[in-house]
Design a protein that fits this description.
The chain is α/β, with parallel strands linked by helices. It contains 14 helices and eleven strands. It has one domain: 3-Layer(aba) Sandwich (Rossmann fold). Helix 1 runs antiparallel to helix 3, helix 2 crosses helix 12 and helix 10 packs across helix 12. The two termini are 12 Å apart.
């Protein structure tokens, strides 16, 4: 990989010290629950702070749901979990209008989507129709029922989990919905040390029940605003564009990265820079999030779904930092 550090830029710290300390404590608390997954936890925080949604793809039982619970408790977000199944209907997620005879009118009863952090568990076990019910919510932070648009709580963060597609009873997510997720990560099996700590420690559910919020809504809004102010130099934008262009001419890729993918990549890189206490982006920030931001958006040409990560890594390795 060609790496060239950007010159040091004389910019003030992006966050005041108290806010930076609270953000660091939040990451430490989640890392204390989801053991041995520091880089993935960092990507989850970057995704949330950049205003995106997170897709976690992995085998059952490796901590996907635990991560979502820990984020909600640490960030003081209202939380709802939806277990996706083959018989789940869109109205089960969004809500439904029910006629009330006493009042002589319909009243909307909101579904579990009306929470600040929604865990869409095993999203690829539902039918494409139900999966698509999330599209408007994820893109516009609102839902439309009976011709009436209703805003969702802010901040609104979807954490979806999905099982590998070779497991029984799964439906592939449509590419249009995959594109709504800013980052896609895998937790993988823990290393031996982390696994031993899990086996000998208190049950994770009990640990989560005693977590205390490290950030409040006002602080989250301030941090998100700071992410938007992180400097991306013209040279860094050139690097992002070079990665996008490389994906569109690669012979192994049928459909490359869109401008929306470029925005997601840049915003996630800004969030990574802020997590490191910098008010400016480095190429290393882009590289840290590239596979997570790009792989699920790449449509391979004749390759399998599992080849997406390898194709994204190939693009990263072959595109120099100028």
């Amino acid at each position: 990989m060609n790496v060239r550090l950007s010159p040091v830029v004389d910019t003030p710290a992006p966050l005041e010290s108290s806010l930076a300390s609270a953000l660091a404590r939040a990451q430490q608390q989640v890392n204390a629950v989801v053991l041995g997954k520091g880089p993935r936890v960092r990507l989850a925080f970057a995704c949330f702070l950049a205003g995106g949604h997170l897709l976690i793809e992995d085998l059952p039982g490796v901590g996907k749901t635990t991560l979502a619970h820990a984020l909600a408790a640490t960030l003081d977000l209202s939380f709802q979990r939806v277990q996706f199944t083959s018989d789940l209907l869109p109205s089960d997620i969004i809500g439904v209008s029910v006629y009330e005879r006493e009042r002589g009118e319909f009243k909307f009863h909101p579904g579990p989507l009306f929470a600040q952090l929604v865990l869409a568990d095993e999203i690829n076990r539902a039918t494409p129709k139900t999966q698509s019910a999330l599209l408007e919510a994820m893109a516009e932070q609102q839902v439309t029922v009976d011709g009436v648009s209703r805003l969702l709580p802010a901040p609104f963060f979807v954490v979806a989990t999905q099982n590998p597609l070779d497991l029984a009873g799964t439906y592939p997510l449509p590419d249009s919905q995959l594109d709504r997720f800013m980052l896609r990560i895998s937790l993988d099996y823990p290393d031996r040390e982390a696994e031993r700590a899990l086996l000998t420690a208190t049950d994770r559910r009990e640990v989560i029940a005693h977590l205390q919020p490290c950030l409040n809504i006002i602080q989250i809004q301030q941090i998100r605003a700071a992410v938007g102010g992180v400097l991306a130099s013209p040279a860094l934008i050139d690097y992002v564009q070079a990665l996008l262009a490389a994906s569109r001419i690669d012979a192994d890729i049928r459909a490359g990265l869109s401008p929306r993918a470029g925005l997601a990549l840049l915003n996630a890189a800004r969030a990574c820079a802020l997590l490191d206490g910098r008010g400016y982006c480095l190429p290393e920030d882009v590289q840290a999030v590239f596979v997570a931001a790009a792989a699920h958006r790449i449509i391979p040409g004749g390759a399998t779904h599992r080849a997406r990560d390898q194709l994204a890594q190939k693009l990263l390795d072959s595109t120099p930092v100028r």
